[in-house]
Write a structure and sequence with these properties.
The protein is mainly alpha-helical. It contains nine helices and no strands.
Length: 241
């Protein structure tokens, strides 16, 4: 069934337009009139500059590539879907922030980020915990990405099931990343030590997944209302809770 547009040309918050029913002229106008175009260019530029810095004489080139590869993969997906699906401003800001976290970790390796070395020494901690921040972000940002896709595509309505499914998706992503780390270590041996970043903690994998789960739960608990408002501005209509 085709999706109807309101008189102001906006689509409902829980649905995406059927682009098969939109003329090429309408699609071109939608792209030209994209109100977030400048924001997207600014965020891409900032990430690009940070990428150049991160890739300039990193501590370990193999580790750098493994840490920043999700940025290249995610960027390719965003470019491919840009004409048909653009994320809300909140998610765009968080995507850029997550990229910065990955780029810093890739440049120094997660176990040697200077600020967290200072925190470790100042507070007499056992390890550099920058990787915990990275895994927190690994849950926080994908939670809002999954939430937005599920809501705007009309897959799952708002409510307990939406929160449960988002948490499951984030845990699946975290588990997949841990499996990737395991296989990288199998294939590359000690060369992958900096990528693993366990720092001698035998429970590092479980703690990383726990941080991703905490990050996802915090995203749903803290930012859901703001996320709804951000999607509301994107669609041009008020979202109903």
């Amino acid at each position: 069934m085709p999706i109807e547009r309101a008189s102001n040309g906006a689509y409902g918050c829980n649905m995406e337009p059927n682009f098969n029913d939109i003329s090429s002229e309408d699609l071109t106008r939608m792209l030209v009139q994209n109100p977030d175009r400048r924001l997207h260019i600014a965020l891409w530029s900032a990430v690009g500059i940070a990428l150049l810095w991160s890739g300039w004489h990193p501590r370990d080139r193999f580790t750098w590539f493994m840490e920043v590869f999700p940025i290249f993969a995610g960027s390719a997906v965003l470019i491919l879907i840009y004409a048909k699906f653009r994320f809300s401003r909140l998610v765009c800001w968080l995507l850029a922030l997550h990229a910065m976290v990955l780029l810093v970790g890739g440049h120094y390796t997660y176990a040697e980020v200077p600020l967290f070395n200072w925190i470790r020494d100042h507070w007499h901690l056992a390890r550099n915990d920058y990787d915990r921040l990275g895994h927190f972000m690994q849950g926080f940002v994908p939670a809002l990405i999954a939430r937005e896709v599920l809501i705007r595509r009309g897959v799952v309505p708002r409510g307990p099931w939406l929160r449960f499914i988002v948490l499951c998706i984030c845990l699946a992503i975290s588990a997949a990343y841990e499996l990737l780390e395991w296989q990288t270590a199998v294939w590359n041996g000690s060369k992958a030590d900096d990528f693993l970043g366990t720092q001698g903690d035998p429970w590092d994998t479980q703690k990383d997944m726990t941080m991703a789960l905490v990050g996802a739960a915090c995203a749903l608990w803290i930012t859901s209302r703001r996320h709804d408002r951000s999607m509301q501005r994107l669609s041009g209509e008020r979202c109903t809770p």
